[in-house]
Amino acid sequence: MLESIFTLVFFAMLIGFGMFFYFVYSKGEASSKRIELDEQKMVEIALMVSQLPEIQCTEGSVEQGACIDMLKLMALSTTSDHPDFKIHYYDLFTYATISIKTVYPEVDPAIPLKATITVADQSGGTTDLYPTPAVDNVEKTAEFTFYDGQPTATLDAGDQMNSRVVLLPVTLRDVRSDKKYFGILEVVVYSIERKMA
Question: CA spacing 20 to 30 A to 117: which of 19, 98, 124, 177?
Answer without folding.
Answer: 98
